[in-house]
Every structure is written in structure tokens, then in C-alpha cells.
Write a sequence for this structure.
């Protein structure tokens, strides 16, 4: 078994701590004094650096995103945001869009382990991930209307994709907090740990994904990103992407393992 390896020191390494074990990168937002706000120094840059490593390293096949100190992410810093001009807010939002894009467009799966609040932009950070594991303390909220703002952080894409337009409308307009069990029931979360933290369950799931057919996962992720498709779009998408997977090493191994009645050993190729 590969032992956990900490990332090398960088200017943002204290704000985002990464460790690697058995093909899984764990990314921990480490700004508990700011409730892991995305406005905290080094957080966005640290996450972007970790995602860059995830994309470039073929040995990394899945990632888990979590927050330190009992919170996933409280979103933006209201004190800071209220002091900025419109142009300054626009520039900050433009920078942050790259974070949501990188998670959503990455071919590798990213699992969010949500313990404590995922509020505002923190909700957007969680929902742009491919799978959400909610812990006992998880609390989700599109809190923007509480302070006279509108949702950002990609939520106009990610919330409807999980909840449909009606569910997204309710969360956005009411600004109501959703706890773990309710989040699971409505489709906001994919798993719920009713008696403890999300992270252990998320790491177990990520280990499973890391041993799976990562090329196929990537094509599924890219296809779902375009949902809902028309029939013609769906048929064209499968024509554009399916043949390459059927010709892949992983498919040959999967088919052989099925016929031999054994567990396949996928290599992501």
C-alpha cells in the first residue's frame, strides 16, 4: 500500500493541505479561523494548484475535497465583499470562476466531503463536485438572498442539475438551510452519514473510484455536464465517445474479467 505523501511547500500550502495515497488526492481547505471562506488568503490559489496536479499526474485518479475545523466552507467574506467596488467584485468573481470550471471540467472525479456549513459560494464549491457525501453536521444553504445578493459560484448550473429548476428555485429564493438527511432525500447530497463525519466515507468511496475505469468515468462526467441532451445530441455524444472506450485497455480487461468471473483490474487506460 502506498503511504500518504504530503505536498511540497508552496505559498498556499498552509491554506490548502494536500495528501496523496493509493491514487487519491485529499484536498483540505485549512482556514478554520475564517470558516474556510474562499476569500481567505491562499485558498483559491491552493485549490487551483491542487487541481492542476490532479489533472497532470496520471497516478492520481480521484480527489476528495473537505474543510478543516468543522466547516466545509462558509463561502465569501461578507465584511470584505461589502467594502469592494463593483469592478473589484467583478474581478474577484472572474478569478473564482476558474475554480469551479477546473472541478467541473476535470476528467477525474472529485468527491466533496461536507461536514458543517456549505454556505453561499461554499455550496457552489460542493455542488460542482461529482459526488457529495454529507456528514451528520452538514448544512447546505444558498444564503445569498439573506444579504441581498444573487447566487454565484456556478450555482445556476449546478443546483438545477441536481434538483431541477423547481428545487433550485426554492433554495435560491428562500435561502433556507438544508440539513444532511433532507439533502440526501432531495438529491442535493449523494450519501449521508447519519452518525459521524463525512470524510471517512468519502475517502472509502474515492478509493473505489480510483480503482475503477477512470476514462469511462470521465466520459460520463462530461456527458452529464451537458444534460439534459436531446435524443440526437445523446446519440451523437455516444458515437463520439463510446468507440474509443470500447477499444481501450480498460474495456478489454473488464470484458475479460467478466468472462473469467473475477474482479477487473483497471488502469485508467
Amino acid at each position: 500500500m502506498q503511504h500518504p505523501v504530503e505536498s511540497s511547500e508552496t505559498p498556499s500550502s498552509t491554506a490548502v493541505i494536500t495528501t496523496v495515497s493509493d491514487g487519491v488526492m485529499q484536498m483540505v481547505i485549512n482556514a478554520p479561523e475564517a470558516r474556510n471562506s474562499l476569500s481567505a488568503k491562499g485558498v483559491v490559489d491552493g485549490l487551483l494548484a491542487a487541481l492542476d496536479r490532479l489533472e497532470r499526474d496520471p497516478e492520481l485518479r480521484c480527489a476528495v475535497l473537505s474543510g478543516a475545523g468543522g466547516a466545509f466552507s462558509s463561502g465569501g467574506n461578507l465584511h470584505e465583499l461589502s467594502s469592494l467596488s463593483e469592478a473589484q467584485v467583478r474581478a474577484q468573481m472572474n478569478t473564482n470562476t476558474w475554480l469551479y470550471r477546473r472541478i467541473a471540467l476535470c476528467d477525474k472525479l472529485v468527491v466533496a466531503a461536507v461536514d458543517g456549513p456549505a454556505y453561499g459560494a461554499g455550496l457552489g464549491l460542493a455542488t460542482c463536485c461529482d459526488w457529495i457525501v454529507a456528514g451528520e453536521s452538514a448544512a447546505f444553504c444558498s444564503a445569498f438572498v439573506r444579504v441581498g445578493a444573487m447566487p454565484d459560484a456556478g450555482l445556476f448550473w449546478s443546483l438545477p442539475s441536481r434538483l431541477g429548476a423547481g428545487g433550485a428555485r426554492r433554495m435560491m429564493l428562500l435561502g433556507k438551510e438544508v440539513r444532511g438527511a433532507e439533502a440526501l432525500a432531495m438529491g442535493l447530497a449523494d450519501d449521508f452519514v447519519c452518525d459521524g463525519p463525512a470524510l471517512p466515507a468519502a475517502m472509502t468511496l474515492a478509493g473505489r473510484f480510483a480503482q475503477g475505469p477512470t476514462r469511462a468515468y470521465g466520459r460520463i462526467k462530461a456527458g452529464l455536464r451537458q444534460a439534459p441532451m436531446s435524443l440526437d445530441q445523446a446519440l451523437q455524444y455516444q458515437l463520439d465517445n463510446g468507440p474509443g472506450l470500447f477499444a481501450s485497455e480498460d474495456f478489454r480487461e473488464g470484458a475479460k474479467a467478466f468472462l473469467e468471473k473475477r474482479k477487473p483490474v483497471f488502469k485508467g487506460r
In short: Confidence is low (pLDDT under 50) at residues 1-12. The CA atoms of residues 256 and 264 lie 8 Å apart. The chain has ten helices and ten strands.
